[in-house]
Amino acid sequence: MKGFFKIGWQTIKSPSAYYSLGFLVLGGFIAGIMFWGGFNTALEMANTEEFCISCHEMEDNVYKELRRTVHFSNGSGVRATCPDCHVPHKWTDKIARKMQASKEVWRTFFGTIATREKFLVHRRQLAENEWRRLKANNSLECRNCHNFDYMDFTEQSKQAAYQHSTALASGEKTCIDCHKGIAHQLPNMKGVEGW
Amino acid sequence: MKNSFLIYLLLLISLAPYSTMPAENEIATLRDKTTLSAQKIPNFIPKVTNNNIKKMRSFPMQPPVIPHSIRNYEINKNNNKCLTCHARLRTEQSQAPMISFTHYIDRDGNFLAEISPRRYFCNQCHVTQADTKPLVKNNFVDMRNVIKRSSTSTKAN
Predict the structure, then answer these.
(1) Does residue B95 come out as left (phi exceeding 0), alpha (psi in the -120 to 50 range) or beta?
(2) Predicted ipTM?
(3) B92 touches A: beta carbon within 8 Å
(4) Which of A55, A95, A153, B94 could disulfide-pair with A161, CB 3.0 to 4.6 Å?
């Protein structure tokens, strides 16, 4: 075993005896493009709504609920897809979230939320995960589309304008503190602040 | 006996033209006068009034109507979205009107700390409004006008 590693290290350490420098540099460059491009393509493929709802857990529960809300169907026809709200858009944060998601793949294999009943049992926990994430990043995924700086308070109802110009403006509250359950149904909210 | 039979017959003859009148002219429905074989062009779905301005109640014990949109508000065994603003404990922050104290009384007359289960489902009485023409003619007269009318008629006598 030790010898095996030694041979490998020797190969990497010693200069190439057969291939030209040009081949190695150009080959490395092209291979780099292919691997990196392939990786990102696969990453983006896993970042689409079609991919998310290819699992019945997502299609039958959360996607079905989303279809009734304003984030799916509205006057202007702009809509949010799953990754718009559930995956950070910045690359490093996205990779971090994707690594966390490997646990979700594990759960899919074991069918933790394979039925509606099982899903409802876990709904509070699942919701809390997302609330915690959005609270920690100051509702970043909301703010990818909704920008406080461009909010026209005169277009909002009196109540909304009041809350946004005070609690939200001061940073005392973030979007998710009030806007829970806007895209999916809510779990039992007993004990949640504001309910 | 013979007389009453004659009266009955006369009545039947005089009412005959009404019985042949199509019923669809008398009852206003969402289908209006569309025949059964035709598909009606649907009415426009009116927008829900969302101006947060209180509407006057038509009579004192009328459940107040909702002057804002309630799209996707959940009222089920888990949650009641309305109460997150209208419950007593929430009104200071929300500045929304508190649900009436009657909603804390159960059917036996006991005052409860929380909303009474029989008053839990807000939409049973409270509804949103839309600015539309009424489907059915409404002869409702505010009771103040009834009083006014009766008092002027007594004065005239």
Answers:
(1) left
(2) 0.73
(3) no
(4) A153
